[in-house]
Amino acid sequence: MHALPVLMHKINMTKDYDYLLKVLLVGDSDVGKHEILSGLEDASSESPFCSGNAYKTTTILLEGKRVKLQLWDTSGQGRFCTIIRSYSRGAQGIILVYDITNKWSFDGIDRWLKEVEEHAPGIPKVLVGNRLHLAFKRQVAAKQAELYASRNNMSCFEISPLCDFNIRESFCELARMALHRNGMERIWRNNKVLSLQELCCRTIVRRTSVYAIDSLPLPPSVKSNLKSYALTTSQCYNSLNHNTKHKNRSKTPTSSGRNSCNIA
């Protein structure tokens, strides 16, 4: 009896993301995967019942869309990578982590990669060299890692949780690869926002008329830009409607091409 209100509450809640991706962090137990997750300011643990293998969530902005990542730390447990077999189901991305100051951890990537390809073939992968702030102790050259990643069709990043360097960039790259692989890229392509100014113009013009722009508490230069944007948008809309009506009246088809209006 009490489950129904809870269920309805969950249904009515608005999602705080546009896409949800499950990502596994794999690598030996001493490469600093926990450092990467603990350094995320907006990360929150959502599986407290799962000891040792809990995931954290973080949200990134990609092409104007909110992408929520479930980041699963496999903790490097098991010589034969049994954790991968359990948690690879439903995963959309893999982050292979090694320590640039530990060559043994880089050599172990081969084992992890083999296991990933066996249980999650074709999933986008990113190779991450952790602890760049300890570069003076480096045992793995950046060029060596880049060549390895290139041979295995992966992107490559060297990161530092201590300096908050390249972590978000590596997540964004993996998310972009995952969305592209699943055919989601085409969903937002037509709605891509070219600049913050255009985003503001779209939002304001959508909620007011051309004649009401003068009454807005904005600088004259901004009002001028808004008017131009609104008029251009209106002209494009009218042009498309006119062309559509003209096509419908024609007895013979003219062209199979589609009209488009791009606002610079």
TrEMBL record:
A biological process from GO = intracellular signal transduction
According to its UniProt record, which cofactors does this protein need? Answer: Mg(2+)
Q: Which UniProt keywords apply?
A: GTP-binding, Lipoprotein, Magnesium, Metal-binding, Nucleotide-binding, Palmitate, Prenylation
Note the SUPFAM superfamilies from the entry. Answer: P-loop containing nucleoside triphosphate hydrolases, SOCS box-like
Instruction: Read off the Pfam families from this record.
Output: Ras, SOCS_box
| GO MF entries | GTP binding; GTPase activity; metal ion binding
Stretches assigned to the SOCS box domain:
183-232
What CDD domains does this protein map onto?
SOCS_Rab40
What are the boundaries of the region Disordered?
240-264
Q: Where is the composition biased (Polar residues)?
A: 251-264
Family of the protein in this entry: Belongs to the small GTPase superfamily. Rab family.
Listed name of the protein: Ras-related protein Rab-40C
> Per the UniProt entry, what species is this protein from, by scientific name?
Glossina fuscipes
Q: Gene for this protein? A: LOC119633451
